[in-house]
Write a structure and sequence with these properties.
The complex is a heterodimer of chains A (402) and B (253).
Chain A lengths: L1 H10 L4 H41 L2 E5 L18 H9 L4 E16 L2 E10 L1 H7 L4 E5 L7 E5 H7 L6 E7 L5 E13 L3 H6 E5 H8 L6 E6 L5 H11 L3 E5 H4 L1 H39 L2 H9 L4 H32 L6 E3 L9 E3 L5 H28 L2 H7 L1
Parallel strand pairs in A: 3-8, 5-7
Antiparallel strand pairs in A: 1-9, 1-10, 2-3, 2-6, 2-9, 4-7, 5-8, 6-7, 11-12
Helix pairs in contact in A: 1-12, 2-10, 2-12, 2-13, 10-13, 11-14, 12-13
Chain B lengths: L5 H5 L3 H9 L4 E14 L2 E14 L3 E5 L6 H8 L7 E6 L2 E2 L5 H10 L1 E4 L11 H5 L10 H14 L15 H14 L4 E5 L7 H17 L3 E5 L3 H4 L4 E6 L2 E7 L2
Parallel strand pairs in B: 3-8, 3-9, 6-7, 7-8
Antiparallel strand pairs in B: 1-2, 1-4, 4-5, 9-10
Helix pairs in contact in B: 6-7
Classes of the chains: A alpha+beta (402), B alpha/beta (253).
């Protein structure tokens, strides 16, 4: 085996120009792959963070069965012991923030215009620091119980601007009509039209007053990171069995989960195309290089060299090419990441994101492994046929070839 | 003089059977009614047409004749690079048509040394590495392989070029390395296509004397396809080929 590896290694230096061409092809593929994967990771993380920090948190906690079912009087299911549940959730070490909320429907009235909309009661003094990605095109986020922030589409339909007073009119949990006048503090947009067209946020106290309840519909949670969620979810199941926890990707299945699946499929397809391009480039270079060796292979086989040994030598040579090319490509990608791409790649607003932003490459250790192994494997696979073809040829045909 | 590994010789295989016959047969090659050709586009070019030939052991044979007469094709068949379309070739009394491909490959390694006019050296290896290329597969490696390589290269006048690459050598020197690579295996027979074509007269004399020495000391046989009348003058047997048959043959008195 040592002799095979030695001969394969030495073969790399037989035609330095051709070897360099092969290395550049593989390196180009590896660089592209690594940058692409880093970009993909950065984009996904940005998108994920956006989803988490606009609205959902890392996950939310509901009364058991509440999320899947529709209730005629949903407030009957709501959480009564807010302080107890909050304390229980806060005692989980990975939980960094607990945000009580209420979701409800009400009429939003301005002048003669009367629209039905979905509202959410939140504690802005707690939430504003973490839920920082909601974009305000006018005004600012909530500060006190006399204010309201509304979606851009809803504001447009009501023809309101920051500083205007609008009226919320709804039913209390006891079935009586109730209303509240609130000052518009801000007009937001999230990039999701249906959300921006029919959603508003008020202070939790204002919502509870409107509904005449002290209950809480659900808690949004902030954890140390998405990786903490399984532990948090398990702890909630054990400590608070009357509740159930849902991660953000389940809460935003339509946008986040589907978009991630869509983008990942697209990325996999593009990655396959990149590898096919590398394979075609390598196939061509190796096929031409091997053709030149036909006479030499014939002479070696005439003197007793075995097909399998030659096959192994050439295959190892391809593997070395793939490995070295991959390493060079990774080096080039790291240099690019630290220099030209250090400031990130400017991106136009994406799904659920309303402003231009920069994607930083987030290269993970597994990306290095993939960027080294995939081009090496592609090189070996691309060279299989030319090597097989050469070593299977009859010796006189090989000797006549040059 | 047999150098086959003991386990091959005693295993009762076809190869060990051949080894046994080798020690008894007086003929190196017995070629009977051999026909062979090559595909050429959509046609088939017939090269050998019922050729008969006998080569004794330990002989120095030259195949002469015009281009296209079948010298190289015959050499290929004698070196087991191809199987004849018709007829039979016996090597040390053993029918080659009975041999499996794997056995032929092993015989090419142990019993045949092939030298080509185009050298076909490995450009990335040194002269010494090229010379000893096949020795590890014959069970000779490390210092023993190196010693044998140096000895062969010294015999053909290349001891000062051990660590040079083929690209640093002249055509004649490269030809000598190709010969050294074949000699280092100490085969039963060396088959060569124009072995002296790239050599000057003095070097040619040196190489021929090495061949003659090996013929006497190692019982090595030599079969050359050549146009070199100087080389032919040293041959024990000369076969002139024309139109794929032996037109005439001569033997040194």
């Amino acid at each position: 085996m040592r002799a095979i590896l030695y001969l394969a290694w030495r073969n790399l230096f037989r035609n330095t120009r051709r070897t360099a061409a092969s290395l550049v092809t593989v390196a180009f593929g590896a660089t592209g792959l690594l940058i692409f994967q880093g970009f993909n990771e950065g984009l996904m993380n940005q998108y994920r963070e956006n989803t988490i920090r606009v609205r959902f948190g890392h996950g939310q906690v509901f009364p058991k069965g509440y999320f899947e079912q529709v209730f005629e009087q949903p407030w009957k299911q709501w959480i009564e012991d807010r302080a107890g549940v909050e304390a229980g959730l806060s005692s989980i070490p990975q939980v960094k923030g607990v945000y009580p909320r209420i979701g409800f429907f009400s009429f939003v009235i301005k002048g003669g215009i009367n629209l039905a909309a979905r509202g959410e009661g939140v504690l802005p003094e707690r939430e504003n620091e973490f839920f920082s990605r909601m974009n305000f095109e006018a005004g600012r986020d909530l500060r006190d119980a006399g204010e309201i922030v509304i979606g851009k589409g809803l504001a447009h339909s009501l023809d309101v601007k920051v500083g205007d007073t609008i009226t919320l009119l709804g039913q209390t949990i006891h079935g009586q009509m109730n209303g509240a006048d609130l000052i518009v503090a801000g007009i937001f947009h999230t990039g999701k039209k249906d959300f921006d067209d029919g959603f508003f946020r008020v202070h939790l106290d204002a919502a509870q007053r409107l509904l005449d309840t002290t209950r809480i519909e659900h808690f949004a949670l902030q954890t140390g990171g998405v990786e903490d969620w399984p532990v948090v979810s398990q702890a909630i199941t054990e400590k608070l069995p009357q509740l159930e926890a849902k991660p953000f990707e389940d809460l935003d299945a339509v946008y986040y989960k589907n978009s991630v699946q869509f983008l990942n499929t697209q990325f996999s397809f593009i990655r396959s195309i990149m590898l096919i391009i590398v394979a075609l480039g390598i196939f061509n270079t190796i096929a031409v290089g091997l053709l030149e060796r036909a006479g030499e292979v014939g002479a070696l086989r005439a003197n007793g060299e075995s097909r399998s040994r030659l096959f192994s030598i050439y295959l190892c040579e391809s593997f070395f090419l793939g490995l070295i090319g991959g390493a060079i490509g990774i080096g080039a990608a790291v240099i690019l990441d630290k220099t030209l791409l250090a400031g990130g790649i400017p991106m136009p607003p994406g799904p659920g994101i309303t402003r231009q932003y920069f994607i930083l490459l987030e290269i993970q250790p597994s990306h290095f492994v993939q960027s080294l192994s995939l081009p090496a494997l592609t090189t070996v696979l691309a060279s299989l046929w030319p090597i097989w073809n050469l070593t299977r040829k009859a010796i006189p045909a090989l000797l006549r070839a040059n | 003089m047999l150098r086959a590994r003991k386990d091959w010789f005693t295993s009762g295989s076809r190869f060990s059977n051949l080894m046994w016959r080798m020690s008894n047969s007086t003929l190196l090659y017995q070629i009977r009614s051999v026909e062979h050709g090559y595909p050429w586009g959509n046609t088939h070019v017939q090269v050998l047409r019922g050729l008969d030939l006998e080569v004794p052991r330990q002989s120095f044979v030259c195949l002469v004749g015009p281009s296209g007469s079948g010298k190289t094709t015959l050499l290929n068949l004698m070196g087991f690079l191809d199987r004849p379309e018709a007829g039979e070739i016996e090597f040390f009394g053993e029918r080659m048509s009975d041999q499996r491909e794997r056995d032929l490959e092993r015989m090419r390694l142990t019993d045949i040394g092939f030298v080509f006019q185009a050298f076909y050296l490995l450009p990335t290896l040194t002269v010494l590495e090229n010379t000893t290329y096949f020795l590890p597969r014959l069970g000779i490696s490390g210092a023993r392989a190196r010693a044998r390589g140096e000895e062969v290269l010294a015999r053909i006048g290349l001891k000062d070029h051990l660590h040079k690459r083929p690209a640093e050598l002249s055509g004649g020197q490269r030809q000598r390395v190709a010969i050294a690579r074949a000699l280092a295996k100490r085969p039963k027979v060396i088959l060569a296509d124009e072995p002296t074509a790239n050599l000057d007269r003095a070097t040619s004399e040196t190489i021929i004397s090495v061949f003659q020495d090996l013929q006497k000391t190692e019982s090595t046989s030599f079969v050359f396809a050549t146009h070199d009348t100087h080389l032919v003058s040293y041959a024990d047997h000369v076969f002139e080929l024309r139109d794929g048959q032996v037109h005439s043959s001569g033997r040194k008195a």
